[in-house]
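[09:14] KT: can someone run the structure on this one? pasting the chain below
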Amino acid sequence: MTDKTVSDAIDYATVYNIESWDGFLVALCRSMGSTIIYSLDNELRKVKEITVVNPFPEEQVKEYHKYLQEKIG
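[09:31] RB: done, structure tokens below
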């Protein structure tokens, strides 16, 4: 990781109003020459420079969230 990647991560997080960790993922993705991130995180869709791909069927994600809500709440 370079100082530029760290700086870019902060910039992405600030400009797109996303978590700093998400900004880091975007900066890392871009530094590797990629434009695709596989993630469940819809917040990443705010970033125009990347394409977010959910690798799981939507129905399974809904079931997963329901399961978590039942266990937590």
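[09:33] KT: thanks! Residues 3-72 form one domain.
[09:34] RB: yep, looked fine to me
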